[in-house]
Design brief:
The complex is a heterodimer of chains A (about 650) and B (about 70).
Chain A lengths: L13 E6 L11 H4 L8 E7 L5 H13 L4 E6 L2 H14 L7 E5 H4 L9 H19 L7 E3 L4 E4 L3 H12 L4 E4 L14 E2 L4 E2 H14 L3 E4 L2 E9 L2 E8 L14 H5 L3 E3 L8 E3 L1 E2 L11 E2 L5 H4 L6 H5 L12 E7 L1 E4 L3 E3 L8 E3 H8 L19 E6 L8 H18 L4 E4 L10 H9 L3 E2 L10 E3 L2 E6 L5 E5 L1 E5 L2 E3 L3 H8 L26 E3 L9 H16 L7 E3 L6 E2 L9 H5 L5 E3 L5 E3 L9 H5 L5 E2 L5 H12 L9
Parallel strand pairs in A: 1-2, 1-3, 3-4, 6-7, 6-18, 7-10, 18-29, 20-27, 21-22, 21-27, 22-23
Antiparallel strand pairs in A: 5-30, 8-9, 11-12, 12-17, 13-14, 15-16, 19-28, 24-25, 25-26, 31-34, 32-33
Helix pairs in contact in A: 2-3, 5-18, 6-7, 6-15, 11-12, 12-13
Chain B lengths: L2 E6 L6 H9 L8 E6 L4 H12 L2 E8 L2 E7 L1
Parallel strand pairs in B: 1-2
Antiparallel strand pairs in B: 2-4, 3-4
The chains are: A alpha/beta (about 650), B alpha+beta (about 70).
Chain lengths: ~650, ~70
C-alpha cells in the first residue's frame, strides 16, 4: 500500500471523544491510556466523558465543535446503531454537517469482548485509528428534500379497489385505478346475489362503479398492468402499460354490432365456459364502462390468424381501429393500494359437475342462460349436491360454506321441487343462521364431509360421487356444484417481488402483523386489501379498502416535504463500463440504463444499501460515506502497526 | 457507580413501564437505572418511555425475551 494511502491530511481538525457509557467502559479497555491526548497526533482535541449522550455530554460536544473549530468528529463509544442519530443531530445543531461524524463501536466490539492480556486496549486503539483516518476522508453530505405526492395508485378494480379509490377521491386525493381486464367489478361482477342480504350483486356494485367512472379525481386505466413500482412512501413511481385501445371508448356506444359481426366465438372465461363470447364485445352483459373491448388472444387481427376485421365496418360509430399502439404511462404517487383479488380454481371436466361461479352465472338473469339452471342433457335439475371439494384449501372453508348456503337458497327459489343436499358442514357458516333455518324448513339435507373430485363419474342418471369424512357415503345427483377453492391472482407474484411485500406459502400477499395498521405491509406506503390477502367475504373486502384509504388520508398530506436518502449511490460516468450488472443487482430497481448504455442511479429510489457499489466490476459506483478511499483509509488505520502515526 | 435496579420480569405491558415510572419518581437526574423484563414488547415500551421522558437508553442486553436495559436518568 502506498505511503499516502489513507493518511489524514493536515487540514481537517478532528475532535476525538471517548464516552465511558457510565459503568460500561473502562473495565477491559484502559481508558487512561487510550484517551491520552499525546497518543493521537491526528486529533486536534481528545476528550473523555462519562455520558456523552446525556444532555450535558451533548452540550459539551457541541461546545467543543464550535469553540475548537472542529470540522470532523470521531466518537469512540457505543454502537452507531444506538446513538449515531443522536450525535449527528448534535453536529447539525453545532453548525457542522452531520455526516462529518465517525463513530467507532468500542463498547460492543472491545469492552464487552473482555480483556485478553490487554488486547482490548490494543483492539480499541486500532478501531480508533481506523476511524480517525477515515474521518479525515469524510465529506459533507447534503440532504435533499422533495415534495411528497398525495396521489394514490390503486391496483385492481374489484370491490376492494373500488372502495379504496372512492374513499380517497371523496377527500380530493387523485387516484389512478389500474385494472387488468376491460371492465370494473372483479369477482363480484360475476355473482348473482350477495351473502347474507341476498341483494342482487349488480345493484350493490353498479353504483360504486358508476361513481368511480364519473369521479373527476379518479383516472380509470382499464386493460392495463403495473410493470414496475419504485421509490418509497410519498414518492413512488409506477410504470403502467395499457393495451392498444382498438375500441375508442369515447366513441363506442355499446351497441354490440361489432360482436355480432365477429367470426370468432369461444367459451367465455368470465362464466367459466357456460356461455360463448366473441373476440370483440362487452366484458359481460351490463359491464361498466359499457364499451366493447378486443380479446387479443382470440382476435384474428391481433393473433396473426388473419381476419379482415368485419367489426371495423360494422361499427356505426367508427370507433374501431387496430392501428393504435399500446400506451405506457409513468405515474407518481405517495401510496399504492394493492387490490389484485383472487381467482377460483377450475372444476374437473365431468358433465354435470359445475363450479360455484358457473352456477352464479346461470342464476344471473343477464347471464348466459338468462337465469335458468339446466343439467347437461337439458331440463331442470331434480337432485343437486352442493359441496366443497376435498382438495379445497382449509382457508376457504368459511367462505365456501357461506357461498354454498347462499346458492342453495337461490336454487330452492329457481328450481321448484328440487331435492338439495348441502355438504361440508354449511350449518356452521358465519351469519348464516336465518338461511340455514329456511333451508331446513324446506327439507334440505345437511351433511359433513367434502366431495373427492376424483370420484366424480358421469352415469346414466347424472353424476355419481363419494363424500369423504367420518360418515362417508356415495350417491348420485343430476348436478354437482363444487367449491374447488381459490388462488391468488396470477400476476401477484411478480408484483409482490417488485413491491418487496411478503407472500404466504400459497402466494397470497401478507399484511403486516401490526394489528393497529390493518392492511399495512412491511413496506411503508404499500397497502394490501381484499382477497389479495386471501379469500374473504364481501363485507371484509369493503372494510379493507376503506381502512387502507383511511390510513393513507391520515399519513401523507398534500404539500408535505420528504427527505431523500442522503447516502444514495452515484455512478461515475467516465468509469462506467455499461455492463449493467448494477441494474440487476439493485434490490430496489433504482438503477436504469441511459441511451449511451451507461447506468444512472435514481436518487429518489435509492435506499443507500450499497449493493450496486459492491457488484460493480469497474469500481464506478460511489456511495457517500462508503467510498473506496474512505473504506480503505479505515482499513489502513486498523491494520497499521501499533505506534504508527503517519503524521505526514 | 451506583445503579438502581428494577425487576420487571414476569410483568406484562404496561406494567414494566409503570414499574419503571413508579420506582423512579424520586430518582435524581444522572442516576443509572437498570430494569429487567421479559414482556415481548419490553424494549419497545421502555424506549418509548425514555423518549417521552427525555432519558437516555445506554444499553440493551440479554437474550430475548429476557432483557436488561440500562437508562441514564
Amino acid at each position: 500500500m502506498s505511503e499516502q494511502h489513507g493518511k489524514p491530511t493536515p487540514s481537517p481538525r478532528i475532535g476525538l471523544f471517548f464516552c465511558e457509557c457510565g459503568p460500561n467502559m473502562g473495565n477491559a479497555i484502559r481508558l487512561d491510556d487510550l484517551a491520552a491526548q499525546e497518543a493521537w497526533p491526528e486529533a486536534a482535541v481528545v476528550q473523555r466523558h462519562a455520558f456523552l449522550c446525556a444532555p450535558d455530554g451533548k452540550a459539551k460536544l457541541a461546545e467543543q465543535v464550535r469553540t475548537q473549530g472542529l470540522d470532523r468528529v470521531v466518537i469512540g463509544g457505543c454502537s452507531p446503531h444506538e446513538h449515531e442519530a443522536t450525535f449527528r443531530q448534535v453536529l447539525a445543531d453545532a453548525g457542522l454537517n452531520p455526516f462529518l461524524l465517525q463513530m467507532t463501536n468500542l463498547r460492543e466490539q472491545c469492552e464487552w469482548q473482555g480483556d485478553d492480556d490487554g488486547q482490548a486496549t490494543v483492539r480499541a486503539r486500532g478501531l480508533v485509528r481506523g476511524a480517525l483516518w477515515r474521518a479525515a476522508q469524510q465529506e459533507a453530505v447534503e440532504t435533499r428534500t422533495v415534495e411528497a405526492s398525495a396521489d394514490v395508485v390503486v391496483i385492481g378494480g374489484g370491490m376492494a379497489g373500488l372502495s379504496a379509490a372512492l374513499t380517497l377521491a371523496q377527500k380530493n386525493r387523485r387516484v389512478a385505478l389500474v385494472e387488468r381486464s376491460a371492465a370494473l367489478g372483479g369477482l363480484l361482477a360475476r355473482l348473482d346475489e350477495v351473502f347474507p342480504s341476498m341483494k342482487c350483486a349488480s345493484c350493490f356494485l353498479e353504483p360504486a362503479i358508476n361513481q368511480v367512472l364519473d369521479h373527476p379525481q379518479i383516472d380509470v386505466l382499464r386493460e392495463s398492468r403495473v410493470v414496475s413500482v419504485k421509490g418509497f412512501h410519498g414518492q413512488f413511481t409506477v410504470e403502467v402499460e395499457s393495451a392498444a385501445p382498438a375500441v375508442d371508448p369515447s366513441r363506442c356506444m355499446g351497441a354490440g354490432e361489432c360482436a355480432a359481426a365477429c367470426p370468432v366465438s369461444f367459451p367465455d372465461p368470465l362464466d367459466e365456459g357456460v356461455g360463448q363470447r366473441k373476440a370483440i364485445g362487452m366484458a359481460y352483459s351490463g359491464s361498466l364502462p359499457h364499451v366493447s373491448h378486443v380479446d387479443p388472444v382470440h382476435c384474428g387481427r391481433c393473433n396473426g390468424a388473419g381476419c379482415d376485421g368485419p367489426c371495423v365496418q360494422a361499427c356505426p360509430m367508427n370507433a374501431i381501429d387496430f392501428q393504435r399502439a399500446p400506451v405506457n404511462r409513468t405515474l407518481t404517487c405517495g401510496a399504492v393500494v394493492v387490490a389484485t383479488g383472487m381467482e377460483t380454481l377450475p372444476v374437473p371436466a365431468v358433465p354435470g359437475v359445475i363450479s360455484c361461479v358457473q352456477l352464479e352465472r346461470m342464476l344471473h338473469p343477464q347471464g348466459p342462460t338468462s337465469g335458468k339452471v339446466t343439467v347437461p342433457g337439458g331440463g331442470v335439475p331434480r337432485r343437486v349436491v352442493l359441496a366443497p371439494s376435498s382438495e379445497m384449501p382449509a382457508r376457504d372453508t368459511d367462505l365456501a360454506r357461506r357461498e354454498l348456503t347462499k346458492l342453495a337458497v337461490r336454487l330452492l327459489d329457481v328450481c321448484e321441487g328440487v331435492e338439495l343436499q348441502l355438504a361440508g358442514d354449511c350449518h356452521q357458516a358465519t351469519l348464516a343462521a336465518p338461511m340455514i333455518e329456511q333451508l331446513r324448513a324446506a327439507g334440505v339435507a345437511f351433511s359433513s364431509g367434502a366431495l373427492d373430485p376424483a370420484t366424480l363419474v358421469p352415469t346414466d342418471n347424472g353424476v355419481s360421487y363419494r363424500r369423504a369424512g367420518k360418515l362417508a357415503s356415495t350417491g348420485t345427483a343430476d348436478l354437482v356444484v363444487l367449491w374447488t377453492g381459490t388462488r391468488p391472482s396470477s400476476t401477484v407474484g411478480e408484483l409482490a417481488r417488485d413491491l418487496h411485500v411478503r407472500t404466504t406459502a400459497e402466494g397470497f400477499l401478507e399484511a403486516d402483523v401490526d394489528l393497529l395498521v390493518p392492511t399495512g405491509t412491511r413496506v411503508p406506503g404499500i397497502y394490501v386489501v381484499g382477497a389479495a390477502l386471501g379469500p374473504r367475504p364481501l363485507g371484509d373486502v369493503v372494510r379493507d379498502g376503506t381502512a387502507a384509504a383511511g390510513r393513507i388520508l391520515s399519513t401523507r398530506l398534500p404539500g408535505e416535504r420528504l427527505e431523500l436518502e442522503p447516502l444514495a449511490a452515484r455512478v461515475i460516468p467516465e468509469r462506467c463500463g455499461a455492463c449493467g450488472v448494477c441494474v440487476t443487482a439493485c434490490p430496489y430497481g433504482a438503477i436504469r440504463t441511459l441511451a449511451d448504455g451507461k447506468c444512472r442511479v435514481e436518487p429518489a429510489h435509492c435506499r443507500g444499501c450499497g449493493t450496486c457499489a459492491a457488484a460493480c466490476p469497474s469500481l464506478a459506483i460511489a456511495c457517500p460515506q462508503f467510498e473506496y478511499r474512505q473504506v480503505s483509509a479505515e482499513i489502513s488505520g486498523l491494520l497499521a502497526m501499533e505506534g504508527t502515526t503517519r503524521s505526514h | 457507580m451506583e445503579i438502581q435496579k428494577i425487576d420487571a420480569v414476569g410483568l406484562r405491558c404496561p406494567h414494566p413501564t409503570l414499574a419503571l415510572s413508579n420506582a423512579t419518581q424520586k430518582t435524581a437526574p444522572g442516576t443509572l437505572v437498570e430494569i429487567s423484563g421479559d414482556c415481548p414488547s419490553f424494549e419497545k415500551d421502555i424506549r418509548e418511555f425514555c423518549q417521552k421522558k427525555k432519558k437516555m437508553v445506554l444499553t440493551v442486553n440479554g437474550k430475548a425475551p429476557l432483557l436488561t436495559i440500562q437508562i441514564q436518568f
